[in-house]
Amino acid sequence: MGLLQLLKSQFLCHLIICYVFLVSGLIINLLQLCTLPVWLVSKQLARRINIRLAYCISSQMVAILEWWSGTECTLYTDPKSYPLYGKENAIVVLNHAFEIDFLCGWTFCERFGVLGSSKVLAKKQLAYVPIIGWMWYFLEIVFCKRKWEEDRRTVNESLEKLRDYPENFWFLLYCEGTRFTPKKHQVSMQVAESKGLSKLKYHLLPRTKGFWVTVQSLRGTAAAVYDSTLNFRNNEMPTLLGLLNGKKYHADLYVRRIPLELIPEDEKECAEWLHKLYQEKDSFQEHYAKTGRFPGPIMSPPRRPWSLINWLFWSCLLLYPLGLLLTQLISSGSVFTIVASVAVCSAAADLTPQIFTGSSLDDWPD
Ligand SMILES: CC/C=C\C/C=C\C/C=C\C/C=C\C/C=C\C/C=C\CCC(=O)SCCNC(=O)CCNC(=O)[C@H](O)C(C)(C)COP(=O)(O)OP(=O)(O)OC[C@H]1O[C@@H](n2cnc3c(N)ncnc32)[C@H](O)[C@@H]1OP(=O)(O)O
Ligand SMILES: CCCCCCCC/C=C\CCCCCCCC(=O)OC[C@@H](O)COP(=O)(O)O
């Protein structure tokens, strides 16, 4: 193990990274709160400010993936569609099997210049997660309770509000509704069987209602659906903790641009269309399992310096006062203060793995 790799695996480094993320995140949440009066004067200006503030938070996580871990992201796509990415609103349909799939999504958003404005249909519980959840409130993220009777109206209303959004955005939809596990897959395939639907090997049965309401609500606003299929080289199952330890992964993303006009308006036909799409996605994963690559040419966008610059800016800003505090702490000579500080750090040490495994996020009660 090289010296740099050894440094990246040190707990002290992780603590410093978390400190910068948490403190900058809370400062940005506070700044977002201060934009509330601006909404009353100019909604579009408030939205543009919030897009930039959100970028300051999400790009820190992207920087961990791109610059700290050096993870590579390869895009397989049609060269004719490539120039449109980032230049239009789109609905992104992505498989949900990896702990860091959202972060790979964010990384592509960053490379195509839509990170600050990107959106997702997220479970309601995530709205209460400090920093990310609070940031999402100001980004007009769409939340669902996974109770169709309620979601039907609220999801539609939230999406309608995005019609006059001032910047291009990608709206991410995990149609599987939950992250893939062998157990969930088994149950899902029983449902498929009972409904007379073809079985899937690499995906859960897609939930069709959210997709239908999204497509209908964003007609005239979004130009296309980006059917996106993600996998990692060497059968790796990457984790946030792995990234933090500086482990380098290699993500492959296959994207097909499907104009929105090609998607049926009728609910039943739209559901059938989505089931067929997932059959195709399954065949792409089969191709990947056999050949180690997706079909089609590679058109990888390079990483940009902005996520690193933003991260260095917040680190410099926040590590200076921390350094001053530590100097004062040590020079105070108070045993009680030093012991209390060590106790706080130990508590943080216990919590960090839980945050990074993401298990605490998935296990929130419904
Ligand atoms: C160029 C580069 C391109 C791309 C780059 C990639 C991406 C970048 C883009 C953007 C990034 C932006 C942000 C990312 C950041 C973070 C994201 C993080 C987290 C979010 C993750 C989540 O929160 S996922 C969970 C929430 N989302 C969803 O659930 C969406 C899918 N769900 C739906 O659509 C649902 O329909 C619903 C939520 C709208 C309503 O749910 P409900 O359960 O009430 O209704 P359903 O119709 O779905 O369910 C009832 C029917 O389902 C049948 N059933 C029962 N059991 C199962 C089962 N196990 N599997 C399948 N189906 C089942 C049941 O029989 C009912 O059937 P009926 O026939 O009676 O309808
Ligand atoms: C600069 C780096 C510092 C990093 C510190 C960041 C710690 C991480 C904090 C917040 C990340 C929040 C990202 C939210 C995305 C979580 C994905 C998720 O939770 O998907 C839920 C989905 O599966 C469905 O779940 P279940 O069906 O309920 O199971």
From TrEMBL:
Annotated protein name in UniProt: 1-acyl-sn-glycerol-3-phosphate acyltransferase delta
Primary location class: endoplasmic reticulum
Enzyme class, broadest EC rank: transferase
Domain (Phospholipid/glycerol acyltransferase) ranges: 90-212
Annotated catalysed reactions: a 1-acyl-sn-glycero-3-phosphate + an acyl-CoA = a 1,2-diacyl-sn-glycero-3-phosphate + CoA; 1-octadecanoyl-sn-glycero-3-phosphate + (9Z,12Z)-octadecadienoyl-CoA = 1-octadecanoyl-2-(9Z,12Z-octadecadienoyl)-sn-glycero-3-phosphate + CoA; (4Z,7Z,10Z,13Z,16Z,19Z)-docosahexaenoyl-CoA + 1-hexadecanoyl-sn-glycero-3-phosphate = 1-hexadecanoyl-2-(4Z,7Z,10Z,13Z,16Z,19Z-docosahexaenoyl)-sn-glycero-3-phosphate + CoA; 1-octadecanoyl-sn-glycero-3-phosphate + (4Z,7Z,10Z,13Z,16Z,19Z)-docosahexaenoyl-CoA = 1-octadecanoyl-2-(4Z,7Z,10Z,13Z,16Z,19Z-docosahexaenoyl)-sn-glycero-3-phosphate + CoA
E.C. no: 2.3.1.51
Cited function: Converts 1-acyl-sn-glycerol-3-phosphate (lysophosphatidic acid or LPA) into 1,2-diacyl-sn-glycerol-3-phosphate (phosphatidic acid or PA) by incorporating an acyl moiety at the sn-2 position of the glycerol backbone. Exhibits high acyl-CoA specificity for polyunsaturated fatty acyl-CoA, especially docosahexaenoyl-CoA (22:6-CoA, DHA-CoA).
Source domain of life: Eukaryota
Molecular function via GO: 1-acylglycerol-3-phosphate O-acyltransferase activity
Gene Ontology biological process: phospholipid biosynthetic process
CDD domains listed in its UniProt record: LPLAT_LCLAT1-like
Cellular component GO terms, alphabetical: endoplasmic reticulum membrane; mitochondrial outer membrane
Pfam families linked to this entry: Acyltransf_C, Acyltransferase
Chain segments annotated as transmembrane: 12-41, 53-70, 125-143, 308-327
Compartments where located: Endoplasmic reticulum membrane
UniProt pathway: Phospholipid metabolism; CDP-diacylglycerol biosynthesis; CDP-diacylglycerol from sn-glycerol 3-phosphate: step 2/3; Lipid metabolism
